[in-house]
Design goal:
alpha+beta, 4-stranded antiparallel beta sheet, 17 strands
């Protein structure tokens, strides 16, 4: 299998770009249904589940689309020793690839491209790198709230109310008055307590899935682990967060977008320069009075190419 380029020189530019939706045009903060807002020291973990109202079965695979309006669908397998590749193409025309086996059975897979038509293809592994088609299914998705795909756990950001990471988020945010304060506290904890794992970076393979509690216990991880742990804690505090994967030039990166209530969607605020993590001054919100000032501070991000949102 192909190895990911998660070596230190490829490590995470782990960013949040300051972007007022009405001026930058990236994301609309409007929504059709209210969601729980950030409260200091209060976690609220949404639970993905099978609704058994709209399901599709093919061979060993069952897909449940009953909660598509909440931004996810469920995948489960009936047979051991089975691997299924699920490909999701939404209105953004990006092909998202997920793999299911008995170890990550009954898992949530997100609709990250917003409202629109999604095509889901599934292929069963029949040996080595050979796959045979299982199903093709198309559905129209209208989200109850645009933030929901970035609040629920999913295969890449996997956690429950009992996860150690959720308990830590509650502890870290107890005295944090605002969601921006909580973001800062989470950043400081992760960067001060989790060490970069060079050995893991050199050996990790395609299909790797982060384990947020294992990262906490070992206090070691690669960029994917740093990002997934941070996103988990933010989501558990009702702070919408995206885990993004792509490139800066030809260098592999992952970064995070966060929705701050008083600011809007925030990108490109935290980076790893190969030696240390750096966060923009938490008072950057004061610069939002002028889009020009903010852009001078962070640059235009023109060298970044987004591939996937998890």
């Amino acid at each position: 299998m192909k190895r990911l380029c998660f070596r230190r020189r490829f490590f995470l530019l782990y960013f949040f770009v300051i972007c007022i939706c009405c001026s930058c045009g990236k994301k609309d903060s409007g929504s059709s249904q209210k969601i729980t807002k950030y409260q200091p020291g209060v976690t609220h973990v949404l639970v993905p589940e099978c609704g058994n109202k709209e399901t599709v079965n093919a061979g060993p695979l069952t897909l449940d689309f009953s909660n598509a309006s909440k931004g996810y669908f469920m995948g489960s397998l009936e047979s051991p020793d089975t691997t299924v590749n699920i490909q999701v193409t939404g209105p953004d025309k990006v092909i998202y690839k997920y793999f299911l086996n008995i170890e990550n059975d009954n898992t949530a897979l997100p609709f990250t491209a917003g409202d629109g038509t999604y095509l889901i293809l599934a292929f069963e592994n029949i040996g080595d790198d050979r796959y045979t088609p299982l199903l093709s299914y198309s559905l129209d998705v209208t989200l109850e709230n645009e933030f929901l795909p970035f609040l629920y756990p999913n295969q890449y950001v996997n956690f429950t109310k009992d996860s150690d990471a959720v308990g830590l988020a509650e502890e870290l945010s107890a005295d944090m008055e605002t969601d921006l304060d909580a973001l800062t506290a989470i950043y400081q904890y992760v960067t001060e307590n989790i060490r970069y794992d060079d050995e893991k970076a050199a050996s990790v393979e395609t299909g790797y899935l982060p384990d947020v509690d294992e990262t906490l216990q070992s206090k070691r991880g690669i960029c994917f682990d740093y990002a997934a742990l941070s996103v988990c804690m933010l989501r558990s505090l009702s702070i919408p967060a995206q885990l993004n994967i792509g490139y800066s030039g030809d260098i592999r990166h992952a970064w995070i977008d966060v929705y701050i209530e008083s600011v809007g969607w925030v990108e490109n605020a935290i980076e790893f320069n190969g030696n240390e993590w750096k966060m923009m001054d938490p008072t950057f919100a004061s610069a939002l009075g002028s889009e020009k000032n903010a852009r001078e501070y962070i640059g235009d991000g023109s060298s970044y190419t987004l591939q996937y949102v998890r």
